Amino acid sequence: MSESNLYIQNICSECLQKLVNDEGDHMPEELERFEKTLKKWAKELYYPAGLTDNTEPSFSWSKCDLCNTLAGDRYEYYFIGKSLKK
Fold it and tell me: Total structural domains in the chain?
């Protein structure tokens, strides 16, 4: 039996574009970090699930949860965490 939990990550506009349209203007090191983060999370059964109902960006001093870029606009994006329980 598998259980799922929904979590929110704060991501930059470039990561949003990459997740939604497979496009974006990441610098090479940001794109590498984005891909490494998604691969790591996938191994932990943690996957992108879609934009939250709050589609307005907000400014954050925190780095992007996916690509680690500096402060800027952030979007709330759902990720689903799956756990295997018997």
Answer: 1
Whole-number Cα distances in Å, 58 to 10, 13, 45, 55, 76: 9, 11, 28, 9, 9
Cα–Cα distance measured from residue 45 to residue 66, given in angstroms and rounded to the nearest whole number: 16
Distance CA 8, CA 31 (A): 20
Return phi, psi of residue 2, to 5°: -120, 135
Total count of residues recorded for the chain: 86
| Span 50-73, pLDDT tens digits | 999 998 999 999 999 999 998 999
Q: Tell me which residue range forms the domain holding 18.
A: 2-84
